[in-house]
Amino acid sequence: MGKNLTSIYIVRHGETHSNAKGLVQGQSDPSLTENGTLQLNEVGKAIKKVKFDAFYTSPLKRALESAGILKQYIRIDPVTDDNLKEQSFGIMEGKPKEILMEHFKNANWDGMTFEEKRNFKIDSTAESDKNALDRLLIFINTIKNKHPNSTTLILTHGTVMRHLLIDLGYATYEKQASVSNGGLMHLVLNKNKWELKEYSGIKFKN
Fold first, then answer.
1. pLDDT per position as a tens digit, 53-85
2. Active-site residue among 13, 157, 163, 186?
3. Of these four, 71, 134, 172, 184, which has the most CB atoms within 10 Å of its CB?
4. Where would I find the beta strands (DSSP E) of the chain?
5. Spatial distance between the Cα atoms of 42 and 60, rounded to a whole number of angstroms
6. pLDDT tens, N- to C-terminus, the chain (206 residues)
7. Burial status of residue 60 (CB atoms within 10 A of its CB: 0-12, 13-18, 19 or more)
């Protein structure tokens, strides 16, 4: 029998009250809506036949609530890790997303190079895209070494998932993927490179 593959399933939390109001969340701590609960139950039904060996989650409330729902389907207690938190948006957290978009426009986002975009911060208290991505990559590398030839479930957030898709070459800043609440991607390690095998709730731009 062949050796098992190292794979990870990464899931975005369900809809929150801030999502429903169109507010920037970042590391603020809203709860799930009723719809968010329904979304994660659908994810649970979709993955309940997968044999998971480990389960990790962001410690933010919306992620913990989502992880609690998935636990009912996979029967594994989630372990929290700060590296799975959403990107911090500093003073923009809790404000309408339109204000955040205006801030990027005023900073000449479209005229920035790739590296400038990766290192841009809203303010001194916020994280850059690179800061947030580096955290996630540190975690994923730890999982690769801690759980080889195993299948791990990860519950995290939309922005960091989009950064990961760019880093893996499946999206760009110009053609960003959108990750819905309850969106899922399944990555498999092949010759030390993560490959996207399947996904749901994620849209890619052509």
1. 999 999 999 999 999 999 999 999 999 999 999
2. 13
3. 184
4. 7-12, 54-57, 79-80, 151-156, 178-190, 193-203
5. 21
6. 346 799 999 999 999 999 999 999 999 999 999 999 999 999 999 999 999 999 999 999 999 999 999 999 999 999 999 999 999 999 999 999 999 999 999 999 999 999 999 999 999 999 999 999 999 999 999 999 999 999 999 999 999 999 999 999 999 999 999 999 999 999 999 999 999 999 999 999 87
7. buried
Read off the amino acid at residue 49.
Answer: K
Rounded Cα distance between 164 and 157, Å, is 11
13 is catalytic: yes
18 three-state secondary structure: helix
Contact 147, 52 (CB under 8 A): no
Q: What is the dihedral of CA 70, 76, 77, 83, to 10 degrees?
A: -70
Give catalytic status of residue 174 as yes or no: no
What are φ and ψ of residue 94, in 5° steps?
Answer: 90, -5
Chain Cα centroid distance, residue 131: 14
Query: Is the distance from CB of 181 to CB of 33 less than 8 angstroms?
Result: no
- Active-site pick, 15, 65, 86, 127: 86
151-156 β-sheet, strand order: 79-80, 54-57, 151-156, 7-12, 178-190, 193-203
Q: Are strands 54-57 and 151-156 parallel, antiparallel or unpaired?
A: parallel
